[in-house]
Every structure is written in structure tokens, then in C-alpha cells.
Amino acid sequence: MTDSIMSKAATMEIPINSNGDTGTLPEDDSLEQDLQQVMVSGPNLNETSIVSGGYGGTAEGIIPTSSIKGPAVHYNAEFNKRIPVTGLGSNMHHSSSSSSMAADDATRGVAVEKLETMKKWGLNTYKCTKQMISERFGRGSRTVDLELEAQIEVLRDTKKKYENVLRLARALTNHFYNMVQTQHALGDTFADLSQKSPELRDEFGYNAETQKLLCKNGETLLGAVNFFVSSINTLVNKTMDDTLMTIKMYENARLEFDAYRSDLEELSLGPRDAVAMARIDAAQEQYQVQKDKYEHLRSDVIIKLKFLEENKVKVMHKQLLLFHNAISAYFAGNQQQLEQTLKQFNIKLRPPGADKPSWLEEQ
Asked: What is the pLDDT of residues 238-247, one digit of tens each?
């Protein structure tokens, strides 16, 4: 019915008189009745059409919407194609909702994991603190390895003594460096006076040469002593410290092991109902974990102590021999032997001024 009305409206003629004015339109009762019926009943959306082109076009560009299934399309009458129109807004909203839900789930999972970690840490700290207090007041028992603990005490005492050797060797280096600088300045002063005092030229010249020779030998000895100090520093502050760090981890593992062992013993002395048995099983599992950790670290400490002792003997044998030969050659005035000692231990002297950083390193 709507098509017939639109067809009538499109083909209706408008008469124009000779003066250019529009004439009176003849009344069409059928058209008026059809319009009233359309206004009362309204168009049926299932019967509406999508029109491409003018009202007078062919039926090629008319697509009944009742025949459309699935996503909406635009129809191009010129190319006789259907162009799908996807719901981008709804898809984007669904995608953003899914991503936000995934982010919320991930955040919630991280929060739960952190909460569980804090809970385990708090429980472990409480048990270890309780065990430590019990041991200090003599109410708790502790696992003791007499042989291993004796070796640990020897290592700590050895480290203190080697730190004292390192401190004294550094003090010797500083004092000797100042003496060499003084000899260098004194030699320059004697050389200058030999040029300005003709009557004492020979005497000042001899002393200037002597001080320069002592200064050269002193720089050679400083190279040997600096190498000695560097090697002792590596042994004390790196090798020994690494072993002591492993020992500290071992002692913490021993404390945790005794804490869970005491907890298991207390639960074993209690009732044997279902709840208590579940707690005992959980405590037994934790006890086994701590026991494996303790035994593993104990084995690591034993191995590191063995290798540390071998490395210490090897390093100190070389360094003590170097220190003795260099000091003896210097104070004996044997410059050739002093230089040979440095070659024997592959020590290369730095040229004067090499200790100062370059302008690029200072930036």
C-alpha cells in the first residue's frame, strides 16, 4: 500500500497556468483515504524497504528488510553488491569488557599470591623466633655438628687475623709511598743545588743520583707490595666472605629445621583425632622440606671450606714468597734481584702518573 501511495505522489502532475501560478490541485479521495490509513496503522517495519535511487527508479535497488538475516548490509545498486555493516561498537565494548575482566582476575591472583607468601613468611618467622628464644634460655634443643662448627670457628678466627695483616700491609704501603715521594723531591732538590753551587757540585750530584736510585727501587718495591695487598684483599673480602655467606645460610636453615622439628615433636605428643592427624601430616611434610634444605646447605659448606683451605694455602704461599724476596732485595740494595722478583711473579709496574684517572674517567 505504501508503494502505491509513493508511486502516486511521484507521478502526480502540478498544472501551471499561463501566468506562471500553480493551479488548484484536484482532490483525490482515494489518495486521502490511503494517507489516513497509513497514518493510523503506521508502516510495518518487517515490510519496509531500503531504496537506492529516486522514487522513479527501477526495482533493482529495493531490498525488503524482512528478507535480511544476520548482520545489516548496505546495498549498492550500481555495483549490485551487498556491503556488510558490522557492529563495531558492540564488539569493542565486548572486547574492552573481556580485557578488563582478565586484568581484574590477574590482579586478584597476584594479590592472593602475595597474601599467601606473607602468611607463610609470618608463620616461619614466628616459629624461628620461638626456637631461637628457647635455645638462648636453654629450654630448646638444637642440632649440633661439632666437627663442622669447629671448622667454622677456625675460619672466622683466621679471617680476623688476615684482616689485621691486610690493615698493616696497607699502612706499610702508605708510609713507604710517602717515603718514596720524599726521596724523589729530595733528589730533585740536590740536582738543582748542584747546578747552582759550583763549589759543592760533585757532592750534591752524588746525593741526587743516590736518591733517584732509591726512588726507583722504592717504586719497584711498591709494585710488589701493592700486588701482595691486592691478593690478600681478594682472599679476605671475596673468597672468605663468600664462604661465610654460605655458612650464614646454613645456620639459618639449621634454625628453621630445628623449629619445624620441635613443632612436629609437640604435635606428636598431642591427641590423635582427625584434625590433629592432618596437622601432623602437614608438619611432617614441612619438616622433610626443611631437613632436605639443611642437609643440602651443610654439604655446600663442607665443600666450600675444603676448597677455601686449599686456595688459601696456594695463594699465601705465593704471596709470602713474593713479599720476602722483594723486601730482602730492596734493603740489600740488589736492584737486579728486585726486578727479577717482579718478573718471576708476572708483576708489571705502572708508569708514573698512571694511578691518576684520565679526564674521561673523571667525567
From this structure: 999 999 999 9
Q: What is the largest distance, in Å, between two alpha-carbon atoms of the chain?
A: 151
Strands 49-51 and 73-76: unpaired
Spatial distance between the Cα atoms of 242 and 312, rounded to a whole number of angstroms: 13
Q: What is the pLDDT of residues 131-175, one digit of tens each?
A: 888 888 888 788 889 999 999 999 999 999 999 999 999 999 999
Cell of 257: 629445621
Classify residue 259 by burial, with Cβ atoms within 10 Å: 0-12, 13-18, 19+.
buried
C-alpha cell at 50: 531500503
State whether residue 19 is helix, strand or coil: coil
**What is this structure's pTM?**
0.62
Q: What's the CA gap between 51 and 75, in Å, rounded?
A: 9
User: Cα–chain-centroid distance for residue 10?
Assistant: 78
Question: Do residues 217 and 103 touch, judged by C-beta distance below 8 A?
Answer: no
Q: Are 116 and 239 in contact (CB under 8 A)?
A: no
Residue pair 329/275 in contact (Cβ under 8 Å)? The answer is: no
Are the CB atoms for 250 and 266 separated by under 8 Å?
no
**Strand ranges in the chain using DSSP code E only, listed in sequence order:** 49-51, 62-64, 73-76, 81-84
C-alpha 139: how far from its chain's center? Answer: 43
| The three grid cell numbers given for residue 113, joined into one nine-digit string | 599470591
- 217-239: burial string, b at 16+ Cβ within 10 Å, e else: bbbbbbbbbbbbbebbeebbeeb
Instruction: Give the Cα separation of 302 and 305 in Å (integer).
Output: 5
* Grid coordinates belonging to 311: 686456595
Between CA 317 and CA 340 the distance in angstroms is 18
- Kindly state the cell numbers that stand for 235: 682472599
Can you tell me which residue has the cell 499561463? 18
